[in-house]
Model the fold of this input.
Amino acid sequence: MVTVYRCAPRPVREVAPWLVRPELDRVERYRDAAGQARSATGRALLRAAVAQRVDAPARDVVVEQACPHCGGPHGKTRIAGWSDIHVNVSYAGDVVLVALADVPVGIDVERCSRVGFRGFDEVALTEAETADVRAMDPERRDRARTDLWAQKEAVLKLTGEGLDRSPNTVHVGIGATRVDDPRAVLTQVPMPSSYRAWVATVDPPVELTILDGAALLEAAAASARTATGR
Ligand SMILES: CC(C)(COP(=O)(O)OP(=O)(O)OC[C@H]1O[C@@H](n2cnc3c(N)ncnc32)[C@H](O)[C@@H]1OP(=O)(O)O)[C@@H](O)C(=O)NCCC(=O)NCCS
Done:
């Protein structure tokens, strides 16, 4: 089963008390307040989701992130001491998503307005996908491109490769929910019409539960206040 927590970005000052130094450094690398809020909320929501699952304070969850190439604190996140809990984070615009699962998982959310630029098809799509997208009615093309982009990123986040593997080497195909290389199944996350979001897992298909991330953050904040007596 995969649980997806969904919420809007929260102001950094609200969620910063749960974050540790490398996370705050990452937040501060974003120059705009919106980027900072997305990054901070993603990590806080991830911590709150795991904390609830393992019954520990959110700040005590140890999130590991080590790039296989340079060893730096980026790449796929893992939860120290809990190899059977799988997590992945994605954020875009006004949306932050965290996937928590008992199987390896990748999640990606994208805005439909971000794919209509020149060169997108060459970077993101296979030749067959490009031909199929261009054969569609013009008003449906960008939604199809956004689906393919979010699906491919979810798959590449499932494997941990991220954009180290070019998305134009991953064939999904319009309307498909299975991918052969790398092997994955895709499940759509319901979103407002200007966004598309997908979860990728390995066979068999999973059941998605969508929960309110804002309520989870509220509950985690309340339990932190109780613990500190404030
Ligand atoms: C993973 C990646 C595709 C995410 O792209 P994005 O659409 O901008 O970002 P999203 O909002 O969907 O996801 C961001 C989250 O994905 C997760 N993530 C990052 N790299 C990941 C990977 N390789 N696999 C799975 N998840 C990854 C992180 O949790 C990240 O959030 P955080 O940085 O706050 O912890 C992209 O950042 C990437 O591939 N980068 C790799 C390039 C790189 O830096 N290579 C190594 C150089 S040494």
In short: Residues 26, 39, 42-43, 67, 69-70, 74-77, 88-91, 108, 153, 157, 160, 162-164 surround coenzyme A (CB under 6 Å). The first helix runs from residue 12 to 15. The chain has two domains: 1-103+206-225, 105-204.
